[in-house]
C-alpha cells in the first residue's frame, strides 16, 4: 500500500491501494516500551506502541473510529471507540485484529438495528472484514520512524542531554500517562456524579522542579494573578532576585511574565496619568533632624539621599479623569448631580537623621467609606527633601494653577461630564502652617483660624475670624502670617484640623505633665520609671527610657496612635502614683479627653454640645489649687495656662465650629491617618534617577 503525507509536519496521513483507502489523524504517536516488553503484530511484524491514539476513516461511507493502544501490566490493551461522539467502545487483550472483529460485529448489529428502524431509508453496509493493523494504523511507516527515533532517545540519552523540544516531549508524555491513569481509575474510586479533574502535577528531574497544568488556561484569570503579584511586590518592596527565589519554592508565575505585566502597567499608567520630574532648589548641607526618625533602614536612607534635588508630580486633572469612572460605577458619583469634594493633604516623614520625604495627596470626600484606606489617597507630589515653604512652592506650582481653574470653572471630564468642585485641606499643624505662610506653632500669634496670641491661649470664646481673601491680599498686615498662602483658592473654613493629631499631640502633653508630676512626687527617678515600665509591660506596649548622649535629658519611646489611645484609656495611674488624690485627678482629666476625642469622631455631635464639654475639660485642666498649702485640706491644682498647647486651643475653640460647618462629612473624614500610612508605604519605594522614577499610586 502507498502512504501519502508529510508526518510529523502534518498529523494527517493517507494509506491506499487499488481497493482500499484509509485516512488517519495521529492524535498521540506514542512510544515503544523497553525491548523485553515490546509486542509485535504478526506478518509483517510491526512494533506495537504504548500510549497511542489515532482517528481512522475508511470505506465509501467514511466511517470514523478512534483507536488506542496502552500497555497495562506489560501487555497491550486495544480499544476502538465508535458511534455518536465515540460513545461506544470495544476492547481486546489479544490482538488489534481481535479488537477490529469485535468492533465489526457490534458495528453491524448497530447498523442492522438502524435499518430495522428506518426501513424506507437506503443503508450502506460494511460488507468486508477489517484488518486490525490497518484500522489501528500500525503499518504507517512514517509514524514508526519518528516513534523509533523518540524511543531510542528515551532509552539511551539522559534527560540532561536532551534538547528543549525533546525534554518537553518527554515531560508531556509522562504527564499524559498520569492523566490517563487518573481518567481510567476515576470511576473505580469516585461516584459518577463527582466532578473529578486533574488540575496539576509536580515532579523533579535532577533537582529541577516541573509543574504541569491540565485544562485550558484562563488568560484573564492568569493576568489577574500576575497583576496581584506585581502589586504585592511593589507594596512589599520585593526585588526581582528575591521573587525568583520565591518562585522556585512556590507555584508562582515566572519572573519574566511578572516583569512584562509590570512594564505594561507602567506604560498604561504613564499614558493615562503622566509623571513629570521637577528640579528642586535644595540646600547642599542639611540640618540634622532632632526628632525621632520614622525610617532607619540604611538602604532606604541611601536611596533617598541620592535622589535629593528631584521631585515627581502628577496633574490632578489626569488623576480625576482616571478615577471618576470608577466612582461613577460604584454609585458614589452621579453625573450632573454630584459635586466633587476634593481634599488636599500633605505629610513629611523623617528618613534617618538627614532628610525628609514629603508627599502631597488628594482624595474625594464623596467616598466616606473609603477615606481610611491609603489606596484612596492619590499622590500628586512626591519628593525627598526639606519640608519648607520654598520647596513646596517650587514643586506645587502646577498643582496650584490646576486648583485655581478647578475652583473657578469646575472639572471638565473627558467624555463630556461637567463637575462642580469644592476644595478642602487637612494635614498636621506644621504642614498646614507652612502652606498658609505662617510662623511656627510656638510663635506669639500661632492660630491659623483666629487672631489669638499666647497671652489669651486659655480663652474658649474664639471663633474663625480670618478669611482667605484677606490673607491672600494683606498677609503682611495679619499677625502670624509672613508669606502668601500656597493654596489661596481654598476657603479658610475648609482648612480643617486633623483629628488624629489632636489625639497624638494632646496625649503627648498629658503624658509629659504626668511625668512631671511623678518627678515632683518621687525624687528617685528609677522608682517611678520602673513602675511605668511594669505598667507598659502589662498593657503589652513596647516602651523604654534612655538618656540622650552627653546630656541628662530623659527620652522615652514615642508611641503610635493606637498605643497612645490604649494608654489614655487603660493606663493604671494608681499603680505609679503614691498620691491617690493625684491619680484620681489625672485619671478624670484623661477620661474627659478620651470622651472628647470620641465625640469628635461622632457625626451626630453638635457644635454647641462639644463646645460645652471642651470648656469643662479645659476648666479641669487649669483647675487652681484649693485650701492652704500647710493644712490638711490642701488639694494641689492641675496645670498652668502656659501648659496649654495650640492643639488644646483648637480643641476648645474651633473644633465645635468645624463640627457644624462640616457635619455632612464629620471630622473623621479629615483624618490624616491614611495619608501617613501611604507616606510610610511609599518611603521605601521612591527611586528618582535622571530619566526614570519608580512610582506607586
Automatic annotation (TrEMBL):
Name assigned to this protein: Transposase domain-containing protein
PANTHER family in the record: APPLE DOMAIN-CONTAINING PROTEIN, PROTEIN CBG23806
